[in-house]
Amino acid sequence: MNGRAMVFHGSGSPLEQVRYEVPRPQGGEILVRVTCCTLCRSDLHTYTGRRNEPTPLVLGHEITGRVEAVGPDVRGVPI
User: Long-range CB contacts (< 8 A, 24+ apart) of 63-67?
Assistant: First the structure.
């Protein structure tokens, strides 16, 4: 399965669309397919250079999604 992300490299730089291979969940891990992600004020401060964060990074941490796959040790999580 492939994923996509918009990667932030620093204030004033364009976001870069990156495609990557999504690993299968191991052990007690759960893979969530993100269906919506929003940017909050702290993300906007990072994007405009008012807040420093290590780069590269993917902005946005307020997400919704659905369980796509679970690791072999996960119990009680419907797919």
Answer: 63/32, 63/34, 63/36, 63/37, 63/38, 64/34, 64/35, 64/36, 64/37, 65/32, 65/33, 65/34, 65/35, 65/36, 66/32, 66/33, 66/35, 67/30, 67/31, 67/32, 67/33
